[in-house]
Specification:
single chain; about 575 residues; mainly alpha; two-stranded antiparallel sheet; about 0% strand; globular
Amino acid sequence: MTVQVWTYIIVGITFALYIGIAIWARAGSTKEFYVAGGGVSPLANGLATAADWMSAASFLGMAGLISFGGHDGSVYLMGWTGGYVLLALLLAPYLRKFGKFTVPDFIGDRYYSNTARTVAIICALLVSFTYVAGQMRGVGLVFSRFLEVDINLGVLIGMVIVLFYAVLGGMKGITYTQVAQYCVLIFAFMVPAIFISIQMTGNPIPQLGMGSDVVGEGVSLLDKLDGLSTDLGFHKYTDGSKSVIDIFCITAALMVGTAGLPHVIVRFFTVPKVRDARKSAGYALFFIAILYTTAPAISVFARTNLIETVSGKEYGGMPAWFTKWETTGLIVFDDKNGDGKIQYVADKAKNELTVDPDIMVLANPEIANLPNWVIALVAAGGLAAALSTAAGLLLVISTSISHDLIKKQLKPDISDKGELIAARLSAVVAVCVAGYFGINPPDFVAATVALAFGLAAASFFPAIIMGIFYKKMNKEGAIAGMVVGIAVMLFYMLKFKFAWFGGGTEADWWFGISPEGFGTAAMLVNFVVSITVSKFTPDPPEDVQEIVESIRIPSGAGDAVDH
C-alpha cells in the first residue's frame, strides 16, 4: 500500500480512538471540565502530562532544530528537560496544596487582587495563544504532506478534531485522550529511530547508535557527520556557534518559562492528593525522558541521511519523497548556477537548497527508505503530539475566560451549568483564533513555542515563585512586575521577530541575546521591579502571609488545602 493509504488508515484509527474516548469521558460538571473530577490515577496522569508536555515542538521541532543547529540546538533539550524537573519539584506540590487549579486563580488569591487576576489572565492568554500557534502549524505540516492537502486546510481539519474532544470532554476527555496520544506518539517516535539506528550502525538502541561506528566504514557516526558538515562549509555538528550568554539565556528562559505554563500546572490538580501529584510527576519525567533522550539520535541520523542524499546530486534524480515535500513548499531548490545539481552549502550566496527544520522528523523515515507503514505511523505521532498539547492549551484559554474572568469577577453568581456553557463557548472562540495563528505562524514550530516560554518566564515565574517563597511580596509589586516583564518581552519579540518598532538584525540584539532567550532578561526585570515596588508599598495582610507559610509546611500535606 502507498504511504497515503497507510496514513489514512492509521490516522483514521487514531482519530476514531480519540473521539470515542471523548464521548465516553465527556464532562458533566465544571469540576470534570476543569480538573477531570480530581480522580485521575497517578500513572494515567503521568502519561497525560507527558503527552501534554511533548507538543509538536518536542516531536517535530526539537529534533529539527538539533539536526540543523547541532550543538546549538541542544539548548532546547536542556531547557525543556530541566524546566519540567523545576516545575515538578519546586512548584507543583505547593501550588497543589494551595488548591487553586489555574495560574490566574492562584495569583488573584495569593495577591488578594482582581487586578492581579486580570493581568494574569491576559498573560495566560498571550502565552497560550503563542504556544498553540506552533501546535496548529504542526498539524498543518503533517496533513499537507501525508494527506496531500493544502497546509491551511490541514490546520482547519485539526481545529475540528481538537474542538470536538476539548469542548465535549473538557479536562476529563482531554486527560484520557492524552493517555492514548502518548502511546501513539512514543511508538511513532521510537520505531523509525530503532530501524534507522540498526540500518546505520547495527545498534538497536538509538541513544547508543548515535555514538557508534557506521556499518562498514570504521568511523563513528558523529565524526562522519562532522566531516560532512565541514566539507560543505557548515560548522562542526558537535561544535556550537552561539555565544555562551545566548545559550545560557535560551536554556534559562525555557526552564523558568515551564514553571509558568498553565496547561501543565493544571495537571497536578487532576489527581486526588498531593502525594499523587508527586507520583504522577515522577511517571511523567520517565515517559518524557524516553523521547528526549532519543531526539538527539534522530537528529544525527536525519542530518547525515539528508546530506548524503541531496548534496551534489542531480536534481532530476531525486527520490519521490523530495518531490512530494517540494509540493508543500517546505523544501525549495533554486538552481542558481544552472547545472541541474543541488549545491547544498553554508555559503548563502551559493546555496541552492532551503529546508524547513520542522520536516526532518517526518521526512527522516522516507529518506532512510523505511516501510510505508512506518512513514504513516510517524505522521500519526506528529498529529498526536500537536493535538494533545493544543487541547490542553485550549482548555487553559477557555478556563481563563469562564472561571477566572466570568465566574471570579464579572458574574460570581453564575450557575455551574452556565459556567460550563461559557467554558465551551470560550473554547470554540479559542480554536478559531488558534487556527488563524496556525495558518499565519510567526516562525517554525519550535521557535514559536520558545517565544511562548519566554513570555511565561517574563510574566508568571517571578509572581509564582515569590508567591510561594516570599511572604512579603504584595499585590503592587506582583502586578508591576508582571506588567513590566511581559511588556519588555513583547517589545523585544515584536521588534526582532516581526520587525516592528524599526526592526533589527542579529547584530542589534541587546547584550547578544536572541528573542528566544530574552525571556530570561525580562524575568530579571520582573524580579527587580516586583521587589523594588513591594519595598515601598504596604505588606500583604497577615492572613495571606499565614497562607504562604502553611503551603510550605510538608507535614499533613496528604490532602489539598483549599483556602
